[in-house]
Design brief:
Elements: E1 2-6, H1 12-21, E2 25-29, E3 40-41, H2 45-49, E4 54-57, H3 62-72, E5 81-84, H4 90-102, E6 106-109, E7 112-113, H5 115-121, E8 124-130, H6 132-145, E9 146-153, H7 157-185, H8 190-197, H9 205-208, H10 232-249, H11 254-269, H12 280-285
Parallel strand pairs: 1-2, 1-4, 2-3, 4-5, 5-6, 8-9
Antiparallel strand pairs: 6-8, 7-8
Helix pairs in contact: 1-5, 3-4, 7-10, 7-11, 10-11
The structure holds nicotinamide-adenine-dinucleotide.
């Protein structure tokens, strides 16, 4: 297929590289980042999108996505699909899909889970919103870049799945970290805490697969000085998106709201920027109730 990838950062570059490896013809554009080997570098987003069957965007936020979509939609040929893989607000995803559909294009919001490691290894999970036709067109590319693609529903359903998942993730990480900090103060050995909780009803992905305590459980960013991994500021971005969506939809999400507030303090006032999101554990360790 002829594919364009716009946004060749930490995620977009390895995704584009995997498409090249699988034999697709890939044009790329980024304001700053270089094109990976095998990707034809275009001089603008519109130039990259011209002639492409699928245009993949992997951008920082909804405002940038809207600006890029305004540029690429007029350059795309009817029947081509605009597939946004960034994590953005549901409203921007729906607005861009409406614009693309009105221009005779297919549209998907298809954010990913799996991080830079998954993008590099081609093992991402895609959660997609859009029409059956658009999903079927892009599916072979999802199979190259990832190990699983779930068609979640219409426009915006992919972003909805992503922010709901990550709201659970943020809340659960905080719960796991505060429980470890309490266990420490109660004199409970961390390994024993892990052995019990990881096989009891408190188990979770954050405890069992990404344990925030160094030296406990499988290897995780905690074993690497809390170098990300999944940076605290990206967790904060996703928690803010979930709160924005909850406000728009009048959903009561008190735990998500508190998680967003805690990650805001952590990132903006407590040195959490640039740390993995599991560095909430040393934060709790250093604090008392006051
Ligand atoms: P990144 O900042 O490394 O890459 C974004 C790229 O977009 C940058 O290279 C930037 O120069 C480029 N860009 C910005 N404006 C542009 C424009 N107008 N035209 C062309 N290029 C432009 O970010 P990333 O880590 O690759 O993340 C991309 C998206 O994926 C984000 O929405 C993020 O939330 C999401 N995501 C990231 C991860 C992760 O672990 N990094 C995991 C899941 C989802």
């Amino acid at each position: 297929m002829k594919v364009a990838v716009i946004g060749l950062g930490n995620m977009g570059a390895p995704m584009a590289a995997n498409l090249v490896k699988a034999g697709h013809q890939v044009a790329g554009f980024d304001l700053v980042a270089p094109c990976p080997a095998g990707v034809t570098c275009a001089t603008s987003a519109a130039a990259a999108a011209t002639g492409a069957d699928v245009v993949i965007t992997m951008l920082p936020n909804g405002a940038i996505l809207r600006a890029v979509a305004a540029e690429v939609v007029p350059a795309m040929h009817p029947g081509a699909v605009l597939c946004d893989c960034s994590t953005v607000d549901v409203e921007s995803a729906r607005a861009v899909a409406a614009q693309a559909t009105a221009a005779g294009l297919g549209a998907l919001d298809a954010p990913v889970s799996g991080g830079v490691g998954g993008a590099t290894a081609g093992t991402l999970t895609f959660m997609a919103g859009g029409s059956d036709e658009a999903f079927a067109t892009v599916k072979p590319l999802f199979e190259v870049m990832g190990q699983k693609a779930v068609h979640c529903g219409g426009a915006g359903a992919g972003q909805a799945a992503k922010i709901c998942n990550n709201m659970i993730l943020g809340v659960t990480m905080i719960a796991t970290c505060e429980a470890f900090a309490l266990a420490d103060k109660l004199g409970l050995d961390r390994q024993k805490m892990f052995d019990v909780v990881s096989t009891s009803s408190g188990y979770s992905w954050t405890m069992n697969a990404y344990c925030p305590a160094p030296g406990i459980g499988p290897k995780s960013p905690a074993d690497n000085g809390y170098k990300p991994g999944f940076a605290a500021e990206l967790m904060l971005k996703d928690l803010r998106l979930s709160q924005q969506a909850a406000e728009a939809a009048d959903a009561d999400t008190p735990m998500g709201k508190l998680a967003a507030a805690l990650y805001t303090s952590f990132v903006e006032q407590e040195g959490g920027r640039g740390m993995d999101f599991s560095a909430m554990l040393p934060r709790f360790e250093a604090r008392g109730r006051g």
